[in-house]
């Protein structure tokens, strides 16, 4: 279903005002039935919304919900367990500590939740510190889990709106579901390829696979410009230049949403402006407001212009706008800047509320502060019970205005209805030939030569070495080289050395003929190899693209999207 964002925004505003005015006698006033409001010339009556208007459907549904339902709709926690209804003793204990229930389905029912985030982590994941568990194993398991969650949510008063199930499927180092799916190269690889059409095609494949598993909200793409050597953002970014990163963000948004998966661009107003890690501290953004407008905001504008349904706020201290207040809790940044100046009308979602800067307050107070600042969804609270009770108490005593809560829920439900009405693809479509081709095309276009002959093929037998712990990637490249007609030997010959996430000078090999950076390429500035290359990613697609270039079957057309000391963006000329 397609609908003009402006038309949805106008309908949302008008109908929300109608609902708030009908509930102005205090937090304990009974909610009106759907047929109670009188018709209005300014907007359709909530009892009879146009079928094609998600905002009208949302406002009508809000008019039927109790206080408890309204509060639940703005919460999107994580849960323990790989099934909605059957969990291990350890997962049950985790859920009891988090929410006083045993299973994810019980959590959905008890707190009338608007959504749930699926979590997990891998070895090279810079976000692993705030992933308390993992509940993603393989596509079949994920689909069974999401089916079970939707069955539980469908029994709620808000069940007419699709339940939100989100995850951080960014591709590259932050990829929650890795087995049995098409793995795209990292966003930095897409930035190197510099072709938004390839990015859109690849992310459309990704959207189809997420939808097949029952995921309808992706906390991606990352719109942060990599203005610093941030290890926590790194290859999650499309690059250091907002002019080239912006169309990549827009392409990823269009691709995901074409397949019925909402995109949440992040981390507003721009985590790449600081090298500090907001999982453990409050990064300080020291750039001037003019620098924010020039450097940080363009990719967010591009994502919004492409129709992104959501924006994620970040735990960042932006000195030029609201010094001392994390952006997540800043009305100046979220309401005045993001909505007022950038024109965003969709859902604003907090970054994880279990991260250190958000834990300055209790879960209840943090949730209230975040909602009052302009967020519409509270993500990953460290205690669901306390967040839920804190929001209800604030609604009752007036510290959370009813108008703000109604506005937030209406936005959330509008997004849900925009995602409705589409059948999920079959699981058999996952990692299919067309999807793999889209990933391969993007990954091959990203391969960059920063030193050495452009397009020079390796000669003679090749041996593949790497820094520690990369046996799987070495195997992928060995297989790809063999398929491309290159003889690979256990040792000797032309040495191709791989370095990746977290590697430094100590992980380089002085005797390698070719050194390849599979994450940010900064490490190449210290490499002695006569040929330096970058794939920015270690996926099967990236190793296939690298093999094609090494074998002389593809031209290395990529350009480094970040500056590397002493090296050009490419030695190839178009």
TrEMBL record:
<feature type="domain" description="Glycoside hydrolase family 3 N-terminal">
    <location>
        <begin position="103"/>
        <end position="414"/>
    </location>
</feature>
<feature type="signal peptide">
    <location>
        <begin position="1"/>
        <end position="26"/>
    </location>
</feature>
<dbReference type="InterPro" id="IPR036962">
    <property type="entry name" value="Glyco_hydro_3_N_sf"/>
</dbReference>
<dbReference type="InterPro" id="IPR017853">
    <property type="entry name" value="GH"/>
</dbReference>
<dbReference type="InterPro" id="IPR001764">
    <property type="entry name" value="Glyco_hydro_3_N"/>
</dbReference>
<dbReference type="Pfam" id="PF00933">
    <property type="entry name" value="Glyco_hydro_3"/>
</dbReference>
<dbReference type="InterPro" id="IPR019800">
    <property type="entry name" value="Glyco_hydro_3_AS"/>
</dbReference>
<dbReference type="InterPro" id="IPR050226">
    <property type="entry name" value="NagZ_Beta-hexosaminidase"/>
</dbReference>
<keyword id="KW-0732">Signal</keyword>
<keyword id="KW-0326">Glycosidase</keyword>
<dbReference type="GO" id="GO:0016787">
    <property type="term" value="F:hydrolase activity"/>
</dbReference>
<feature type="region of interest" description="Disordered">
    <location>
        <begin position="23"/>
        <end position="54"/>
    </location>
</feature>
<comment type="similarity">
    <text>Belongs to the glycosyl hydrolase 3 family.</text>
</comment>
<keyword id="KW-0378">Hydrolase</keyword>
<protein>
    <recommendedName>
        <fullName>beta-N-acetylhexosaminidase</fullName>
        <ecNumber>3.2.1.52</ecNumber>
    </recommendedName>
</protein>
